[in-house]
């Protein structure tokens, strides 16, 4: 089936690196597909290792692991996987239309590569494309504590329009589970994508509901 021009714009590229917090990337993919976007996914070698250690994925058979996690969404083409070594993949070209790219989570190594224009794999090349084409690029850095080089790299990218959405939980809505804390961060990413969602209760919503009743 040939994609229409409108469908081509309803694409997001998602990258998962070796920083802790791969669950954020997986939940983001689920929500983007739920919102009728097509997701193009790239995972670094270190990212695969974290998926194994944090989520228990069987990463020796990567296609099978993706099929187990996403099922029909993968076979139906709503999720398109690109090996990180495939530097000639569609997402490596500026002519590939997409809303933008989110790297969730983003390691300090990948962030440093982007800040210095180094694109020696598909993930960093796809992100570099977003910068040169003036498209949205969102990063979820996950590291603590941060030293001056980390902060300088984030500042450099921020000045280029990259959105920094650090993996920081909030507690004003009284989360009762890890899933709720994950959904809060994913919701903040979706907010910056201008994608509607109901993953967390916004500040003031409770008071508004009380006034309505």
If you had to describe this structure to a student in words, what would you say it looks like?
With 213 residues, the chain is an alpha/beta fold. It has a single domain, classed as 3-Layer(aba) Sandwich (Rossmann fold). The chain is 46% helix and 15% strand. Strands 3-2-1-4-5-6 form a six-stranded parallel β-sheet, sandwiched between helices. Helix 2 crosses helix 9 and helix 6 packs across helix 8. The longest helix is centred in the last third of the chain and has 16 residues. The termini are far apart.
N-to-C order of helices and strands: HEHEHHHEEHHEHEHH
Mean pLDDT over the full residue set:
92
Q: Helicity level, as a percent range?
A: 40-55%
**Measured on Cα atoms, how large is the radius of gyration?**
17 Å
What number of structural domains do the residues give?
Answer: 1
CATH superfamily: Flavin prenyltransferase-like
The CATH class label is Alpha Beta
Oligomer: single chain
Decide which structural class fits the backbone.
Answer: alpha/beta
- In the sheet with the most strands, the strands line up as 3-2-1-4-5-6
- Measured by DSSP, the beta-strand proportion falls in 15-25%
Total helical segments: 10
| Unreliable stretches | 208-213
Distance between the termini: 48 Å
Describe the sheet with the most strands.
6 strands, parallel
User: What form results from the Cα inertia axes?
Assistant: globular
The fold-level CATH name is Rossmann fold
The number of distinct β-strands equals 6
CATH architecture: 3-Layer(aba) Sandwich
């Amino acid at each position: 089936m040939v994609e229409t021009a409108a469908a081509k714009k309803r694409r997001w590229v998602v990258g998962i690196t070796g920083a802790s917090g791969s669950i954020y990337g997986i939940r983001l993919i689920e929500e983007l597909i739920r919102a009728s976007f097509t997701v193009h996914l790239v995972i670094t070698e270190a990212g695969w290792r974290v998926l194994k250690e944090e989520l228990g994925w069987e990463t020796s058979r990567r296609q099978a692991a993706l099929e187990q996690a996403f099922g029909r969404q993968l076979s139906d083409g709503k999720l398109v996987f690109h090996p990180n070594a495939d530097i000639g993949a569609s997402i490596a070209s500026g002519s590939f239309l997409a809303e933008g790219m989110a790297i969730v989570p983003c390691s300090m190594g990948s962030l440093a590569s982007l800040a210095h224009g180094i694109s020696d794999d598909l993930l960093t090349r796809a992100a570099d494309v977003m910068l040169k084409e003036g498209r949205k690029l969102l990063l979820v850095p996950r590291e603590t504590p941060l030293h001056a080089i980390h902060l300088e790299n984030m500042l450099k990218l921020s000045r280029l329009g990259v959105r920094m959405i650090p993996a920081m939980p909030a507690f004003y809505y009284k989360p009762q589970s890890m899933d709720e804390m994950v959904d809060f961060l994913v919701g903040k990413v979706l907010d910056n994508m201008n994608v509607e969602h109901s993953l967390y209760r916004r500040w003031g919503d409770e008071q508004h509901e009380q006034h309505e009743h």
